[in-house]
């Protein structure tokens, strides 16, 4: 142990020196590999799904052999799968995901039009989840075992049991229809108006996830509260609030951040339902629509986007970890 | 005027259990008082009450006057003021006690900046002075370092420096060296005594170690089960204990001195009554004996952690242990003694060298179930912490039965009877067979672990720090048990320990390890009386000895 300590002590002085950079480089490599595997899965899953894009493109018409051949050639469907994949990947790296079958537009344009709404929705929901979830978790942890703790936990659990579509409908009927505070529909024009339009949808989206962050915050805080260094800080005459802020919450951040990273993918996926309920034209509703119409290029692009967002967010969380906990930079041996 | 005056302190938990039954004790200015007791005696609780740190929901009664202010029932603001200016506390485990996610500089300057409103530069200057005062090598660098970059001993110095930032009048030390090696303990105690004298502080030293307390304290207060058993000058309590409990405690405390009490203890007995194994006297290693129970030559193990320099855990260890003999392996943390034990038991493959148990080659780690079983039959291990080494869901009897049924084809009923026999052998009763570990005390659990290890009659029993987690009185019982088993059955024992005094009680042969190397080996009594290697001498000098400093206690202060 002592020898290991000494070794760690000499090497881990600077967190952002050699070892730190190597760590980040390793993370980036892992990230690239993950995205590559995901792209394989996403692209080739098309060949497993029943349904033929050509017949969709020629829908309603009795296809002549030439027409089929022409459409097949136009969309590059006659090439061997690996070549199709290569073309797709090279295009994707340049921001070109091909043409949407249903809109007859570039996929990038189709998605680009709808991305801001979804991003805004996810960001607003994320902020709401962080504020309410972390806040509730802190309140519960500081009142552990008391009525307030139980009320908070039960409240969060009940909220999380409400499916998004039900929550959406309730929110619309109460705050939009009866009280008339918020619009029922659409995403508005301009930044301020968009925020205003997205208040209810983001609440509907956040409700389900608040409990997760709340519970993680609570248990992480509770664990830290029992640590001896917290008692030491108290014994030195620091105020309760200072101890909580500097020693309990600060140290409890790790797990909260990790869970938040995992949440991102869930939020994007869950946004489909909320977007549908509020008539928003975002990525989520586009995904549903595209799956329905076998619009493979759009589906592939959206799934890749979700995977990328998820992987990147989690890589960022990983890279941030040593900033929060200096021990993780020195490796597990230092714990 | 007395700095601390505790009168009739009682603490009741929220569920009505009474933990302290009217404690009274005092510390005068500049005085050092030792609060001695075993686990559960309430000594830590008493110490924490001084700083107003009490279990949530507990009710306190009596009076705790600190520096002229009543602590019990004081408003939060007053308690904070006392914590900031009158008393400071040093905790047992510095690794747990300093926030691992903040720099040491932050730990040291935190209270100065946030409580006293000192500018950051002034606070840092004060921190640097204190780090130098506790003799840390590079104060300026340490400010930006994190706790995980430090050893336990260095961290405890940081903790001391942190406690001194407030220039307290009373320093409360709760087992400040229990988590540390014996040489480190000696250094830390030196720093503590130095600072106490330099600053004229009062000190309340909480410890389970009677010898340690007696070596630095003016007065001792002995506690048991929430009551004060005895109080008096350190020398008097140690030499002429009045309370029954203190007398037992003194007797149970292992000492290095080969006094009449110690020499009458087991060390001689097993040698005399172990004719089964080796014929000639076992103190000078016999070579004519049949096959030694355990023979190790050139055994080594190197760990190669990724991205870090390799760690040589055990380098070229060689020794023999004849049947019925007892060999102690002594060393501090990082000496490789546990790795050695793990290689012998087969939990860890060796890199090189030979290892034979009962004449059979066991150098390669066991592969497959059959080899693992065979290895387990030849050597068994008792681990340090019986709270962790027993499955909490399995009763004591079952855990022994399982060992029996795993290794022999004994029918269930026979195994059950045998388990009870074994439990009785280690001083437990048939009733304990049905008990789950949770309901057993630490000493009882370790007895179960020993019974389980002995169930299949291994050729060698390895005890890895098997008594260091136990209270001294319980440790004494377990050591007596081991001595008895050796006498009766000619048990061959490899006893891993950091405690030289314990070793004297158990083993006739001793091996001293340091950083993976065997630095000295010989008959225990000779090795302890006339150490040849400087490291062995350092180890011996580090053991707290009440006698020498007690002179300075008797001398006017």
> Which runs of chain B of at least 5 residues are low in confidence (pLDDT < 50)?
259-288, 548-557
Strand content of chain A: under 5%
What best-fitting shape of chain A do the alpha-carbon axes yield? Answer: flat
Q: Rg of chain B to the nearest angstrom?
A: 25 Å
Largest sheet geometry of chain A: none
Task: State the secondary-structure class of chain B.
Answer: alpha/beta
CATH-defined architecture of the largest domain in chain B: 3-Layer(aba) Sandwich
The number of distinct β-strands of chain A equals 0
Residues in helices of chain B, as a percent range: 40-55%
Question: Which features would summarize this protein structure in a list?
Answer:
heterodimer; A: 335 residues; mainly alpha; MetI-like fold; 14 helices; disordered N terminus; B: 557 residues; alpha/beta; Rossmann fold; 2 domains; six-stranded mixed β-sheet; 24 helices; disordered C terminus
Write a brief structural summary.
Chain A has 335 residues and is mainly alpha-helical. Chain A has helices spanning 2-11, 18-44, 53-57, 65-74, 81-93, 107-142, 147-160, 164-178, 190-225, 228-235, 240-277, 283-292, 296-324, 326-329.
Helices and strands in order, then pairings?
The complex is a heterodimer of chains A (335) and B (557).
Chain A: H1 2-11, H2 18-44, H3 53-57, H4 65-74, H5 81-93, H6 107-142, H7 147-160, H8 164-178, H9 190-225, H10 228-235, H11 240-277, H12 283-292, H13 296-324, H14 326-329
Chain B: E1 2-12, E2 18-28, E3 32-37, H1 43-50, E4 59-66, E5 69-70, H2 76-85, E6 87-90, H3 94-97, H4 104-114, H5 120-133, H6 139-142, H7 152-164, E7 170-174, H8 182-199, E8 202-207, H9 210-216, E9 219-224, E10 227-233, H10 234-239, H11 244-252, H12 260-263, H13 268-272, E11 294-303, E12 311-321, E13 326-330, H14 337-345, E14 352-357, E15 360-361, H15 368-378, E16 379-382, H16 386-389, H17 396-407, H18 412-425, H19 442-454, E17 460-464, H20 472-489, E18 493-497, H21 500-506, E19 509-514, E20 517-523, H22 524-529, H23 534-542, H24 547-554
Parallel strand pairs in B: 3-8, 3-9, 6-7, 7-8, 13-18, 13-19, 16-17, 17-18
Antiparallel strand pairs in B: 1-2, 1-4, 4-5, 9-10, 11-12, 11-14, 14-15, 19-20
Helix pairs in contact in B: 4-5, 4-7, 5-7, 7-8, 8-23, 11-20, 17-18, 17-19, 18-19, 19-20
């Amino acid at each position: 142990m002592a020898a290991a300590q000494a070794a760690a002590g000499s090497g881990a002085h600077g967190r952002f020196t050699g070892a730190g950079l190597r760590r980040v480089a390793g993370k980036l490599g892992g990230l690239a590999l993950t995205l590559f595997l995901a792209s394989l899965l996403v692209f080739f899953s098309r060949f497993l799904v029943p349904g033929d894009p050509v017949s969709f493109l020629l829908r309603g018409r009795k296809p002549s052999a030439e027409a089929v051949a022409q459409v097949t050639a136009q969309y590059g469907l006659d090439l061997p799968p690996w070549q199709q994949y290569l073309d797709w990947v090279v295009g994707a790296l340049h921001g070109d995901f091909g043409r949407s079958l249903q809109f007859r537009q570039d996929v990038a344009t189709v998605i680009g039009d709808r991305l801001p709404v979804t991003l805004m929705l996810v960001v607003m929901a994320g902020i709401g989840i962080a504020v309410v979830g972390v806040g509730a978790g802190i309140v519960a942890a500081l009142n552990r075992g008391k009525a307030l703790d139980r009320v908070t936990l039960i409240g969060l659990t009940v909220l999380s049991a409400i499916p998004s579509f039900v929550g959406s409908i309730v929110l619309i009927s109460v705050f939009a229809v009866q009280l008339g505070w918020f619009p029922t529909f659409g995403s508005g024009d301009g930044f301020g108006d968009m925020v205003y339009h997205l208040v209810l949808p983001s609440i509907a989206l956040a409700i389900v996830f608040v409990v997760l962050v709340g519970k993680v915050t609570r248990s992480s805080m509770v664990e830290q509260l029992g640590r001896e260094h917290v008692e030491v800080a108290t014994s030195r005459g620091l105020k309760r609030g200072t101890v909580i802020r500097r020693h309990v919450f600060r140290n409890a951040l790790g797990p909260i951040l990790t869970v938040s990273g995992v949440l991102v993918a869930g939020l994007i996926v869950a946004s489909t339902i909320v977007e549908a309920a509020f008539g928003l034209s975002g990525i989520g509703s586009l995904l549903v629509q595209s799956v329905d119409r076998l619009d493979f290029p759009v589906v592939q692009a959206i799934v890749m986007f979700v995977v990328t967002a998820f992987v990147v967010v989690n890589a960022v969380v990983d890279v941030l970890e040593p900033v929060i906990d200096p021990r993780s930079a020195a490796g597990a041996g230092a714990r | 005027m007395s700095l601390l005056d505790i009168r009739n302190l009682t603490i009741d938990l929220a569920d009505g259990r009474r933990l302290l039954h009217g404690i009274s004790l005092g510390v005068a200015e500049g005085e050092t008082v030792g609060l001695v007791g075993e686990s559960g005696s309430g000594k830590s609780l008493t110490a924490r009450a001084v700083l107003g740190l009490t279990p949530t929901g507990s009710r306190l009664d009596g009076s705790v006057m600190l520096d002229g202010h009543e602590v019990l029932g004081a408003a939060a603001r007053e308690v904070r003021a006392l914590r900031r200016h009158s008393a400071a506390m040093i905790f047992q485990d510095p690794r747990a006690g300093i926030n691992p996610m903040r720099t040491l500089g932050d730990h040291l300057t935190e209270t100065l900046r946030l409580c006293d409103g000192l500018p950051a530069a002034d606070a840092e200057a004060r921190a640097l002075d204190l780090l130098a005062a506790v003799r840390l090598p590079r104060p300026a660098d340490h400010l930006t370092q994190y706790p995980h970059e430090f050893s336990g001993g260095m961290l405890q110095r940081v903790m001391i420096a942190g406690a001194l930032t407030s220039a307290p009048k009373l320093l409360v030390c709760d087992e400040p060296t229990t988590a540390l090696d014996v040489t480190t303990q000696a250094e830390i105690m030196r720093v503590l005594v130095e600072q106490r004298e330099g600053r004229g502080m009062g000190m309340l030293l909480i410890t389970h170690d009677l010898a340690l307390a007696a070596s630095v304290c003016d007065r001792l207060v002995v506690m048991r089960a929430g009551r004060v058993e005895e109080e008096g000058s350190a020398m008097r309590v140690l030499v002429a204990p009045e309370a029954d409990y203190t007398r037992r405690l003194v007797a149970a405390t292992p000492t290095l001195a080969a006094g009449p009490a110690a020499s009458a203890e087991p060390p001689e007995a097993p040698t005399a009554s172990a004719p089964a194994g080796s014929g000639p006297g076992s103190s000078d290693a016999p070579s004519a004996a049949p096959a030694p129970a355990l023979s190790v030559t050139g055994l080594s193990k190197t760990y190669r952690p990724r991205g870090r320099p390799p760690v040589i855990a055990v380098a070229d260890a060689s020794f023999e242990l004849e049947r019925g003999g007892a060999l102690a392996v002594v060393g501090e943390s990082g000496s490789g003694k546990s790795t050695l034990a793990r290689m012998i038991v087969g939990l860890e493959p060796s890199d090189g060298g030979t290892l034979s148990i009962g004449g059979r080659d066991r150098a390669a780690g066991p592969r497959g179930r059959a080899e693992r079983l065979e290895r387990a039959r030849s050597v068994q291990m008792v681990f340090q912490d019986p709270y962790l080494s027993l499955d909490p869901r399995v009763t004591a009897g079952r855990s022994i039965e399982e060992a029996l049924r795993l290794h022999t084809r004994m029918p269930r009923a026979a195994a059950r009877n045998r388990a009870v026999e074994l439990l009785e052998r280690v001083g437990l009763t048939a009733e304990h067979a049905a008990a789950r570990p949770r309901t057993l005390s630490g000493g009882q659990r370790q007895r179960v672990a020993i019974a389980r290890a002995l169930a299949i009659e291994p050729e060698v029993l390895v005890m890895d720090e098997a008594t260091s987690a136990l209270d001294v009185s319980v440790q004494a019982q377990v050591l007596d048990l081991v001595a008895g088993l050796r006498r009766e059955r000619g048990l061959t024992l490899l006893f891993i320990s950091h405690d030289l005094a314990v070793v004297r009680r158990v083993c006739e042969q001793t091996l001293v390890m340091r950083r993976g190397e065997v630095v000295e080996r010989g008959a225990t009594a000779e090795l302890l009386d006339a150490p040849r290697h400087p490291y062995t001498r350092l180890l011996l000098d580090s053991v707290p000895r009440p006698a020498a400093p007690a002179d300075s206690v008797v001398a006017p202060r």
